[in-house]
Inverse folding.
């Protein structure tokens, strides 16, 4: 399983010399199976650069998973180059959480006066399919076994994902508030069970104790560390980096997380996740 981050900022993209190391693009992850099956998680602004890379590879099957439909996870979709490629197949999977479908959600984004190219217009050359997925219902994309779970996030909730292949496990939980249970969210112990034994857990770490906003749908980085320790994962990636947090401040947060882990005398690798992070397991 190959995993790469194309964007990890929260809420809004940022740029400037303070954001070079971890990047300023919003959520987008690439996952590939050992056989080369392609899964894209979310269409934040990071999907623009991923799309250029995929376009260079030529037409292929792409599966896109959406965690939820907040704007920072959708904003890059209209700029995804494979949309404009003939013979390209894209399957979009997500839980519309009260909306009729993800097609209707994206239709609303790609329409006047917000965007000049319409989803159903002649400029869109790819073959698009939209399917609904639900928490707890495992499905497969090629060699990847994928299980969704409900997130604790306001305004219609969201989905996290557990990927399994050849005995390796990757769990992705962004926009998940561990210390506040939103409608549809689960108890902490359920997230522990979901993450149990993961080789890599990437989890929301939007806040420190000095800037935490309870009920806003994002976790303290210390809660993400506690989850990783309880679930006995091997590696933890701190994600959904606050758009105001500079590279140096992110480094400080990650360093403090590692100090907590050392105090617990447990083996757990921990780092902040930025654009360009990649790993194979």
């Amino acid at each position: 399983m190959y995993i790469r981050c194309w964007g990890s900022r929260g809420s809004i993209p940022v740029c400037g010399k303070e954001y070079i190391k971890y990047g300023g693009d919003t959520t987008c992850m690439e996952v590939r199976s050992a056989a080369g099956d392609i899964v894209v998680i979310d269409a934040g602004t990071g999907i623009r650069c991923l799309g250029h890379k995929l376009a260079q590879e030529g037409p292929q099957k792409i599966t896109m998973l959406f965690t939820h439909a907040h704007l920072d996870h959708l904003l890059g979709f209209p700029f995804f180059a494979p949309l404009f490629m003939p013979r390209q197949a894209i399957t979009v999977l997500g839980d519309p959480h009260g909306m009729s479908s993800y097609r209707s959600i994206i239709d609303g984004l790609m329409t006047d006066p917000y965007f000049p190219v319409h989803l159903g217009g002649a400029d869109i050359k790819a073959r698009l399919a939209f399917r609904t997925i639900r928490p707890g219902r495992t499905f497969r994309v090629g060699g990847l076994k994928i299980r969704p779970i409900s997130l604790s996030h306001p305004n219609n909730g969201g989905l996290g994902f557990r990927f399994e292949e050849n005995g390796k496990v990757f769990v992705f939980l962004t926009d998940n508030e561990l210390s506040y249970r939103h409608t549809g969210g689960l108890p902490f112990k359920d997230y522990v069970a979901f993450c149990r034994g993961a080789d890599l857990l990437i989890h929301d770490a939007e806040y420190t104790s000095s800037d935490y906003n309870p009920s806003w749908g994002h976790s303290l980085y210390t809660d993400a560390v506690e989850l990783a320790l309880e679930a006995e994962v091997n590696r933890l990636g701190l994600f959904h980096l606050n758009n105001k947090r500079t590279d140096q401040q992110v480094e400080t947060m990650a360093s403090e997380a590692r100090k907590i882990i050392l105090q617990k005398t447990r083996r757990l690798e921990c780092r902040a996740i930025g654009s360009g992070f990649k790993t194979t397991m």
